Amino acid sequence: MSERKRVERRYRRRRLVALLAVVACALGLAANARAEPETERYTVRPGDTLWSIATERYPPHADPRAVIEEIRRQNGLPGYGIRPGEVLSLPEG
Questions:
Q1: Can you tell me the distance from the alpha carbon of 21 to that of 16, in angstroms, rounded to the nearest whole number?
Q2: Which terminus, N or C, of the chain has the lesser number of Cβ atoms within 10 Å?
Q3: What is the dihedral of CA 4, 10, 15, 17, to 10 degrees?
Q4: How do residues 12-67 score in pLDDT, each as one tens digit?
Q5: Residue 67: burial class (beta carbons within 10 Å; 0-12, 13-18, 19+)
Q6: In angstroms, rounded to a whole number, what is the distance separating the alpha carbons of residues 32 and 27?
Q7: Residue whose C-alpha is closest to residue 91's, from 63, 30, 83
Q8: What are the distances in angstroms from CA 48 to CA 31, 38, 45, 77, 91?
Q9: How far is the C-alpha of 93 from the C-alpha of 88, rounded, in Å?
Q10: From 3.40.47.10, 3.40.50.300, 3.50.30.10, 3.10.350.10, which CATH number describes the 39-91 domain?
C-alpha cells in the first residue's frame, strides 16, 4: 500500500472518530437538557399555607421564602393563597 493511501486512510479514520465523539457529546447534552426536575404531588388540606408546607415538608436549613417562591413558580400561582383540595407540585427538597 502506498504512503498516500495510508495517510488518506488514517485521515478518514480520525474524521470518523471525531464525528462519533461529537455525536456522543450531543446526545449526552440532549439527554441532560430533557431531564425533568424531581417533583412531588401534594394535596392541600384545610389549614395549610405555603409557609406551613415550606416549613413542615422541607429540611430546617431550607429557606422557606425560597421554597415558597419555587412552589409558586412551579404551579403558576399568582399570589400566596391556596385552597383545600388543590394539588400542588412541590420541588424535591
A1: 9
A2: N
A3: 170
A4: 888 888 877 888 777 877 766 655 567 899 999 999 999 999 999 999 999 999 99
A5: buried
A6: 9
A7: 63
A8: 37, 22, 6, 15, 17
A9: 14
A10: 3.10.350.10
More confident position, 4 or 34: 4
Q: Give Cα separations from 34 to 23, 31, 37, 57 (angstroms).
A: 17, 5, 9, 27
Written as nine digits, the cell of 42 is 401534594
pTM: 0.59
Instruction: Look up residue 50 and give its three cell numbers.
Output: 405555603
Domain spans of the chain? Answer: 1-35, 39-91
Sequence-separated (6 or more) residues with CB below 8 Å from residue 58: 64, 67, 93
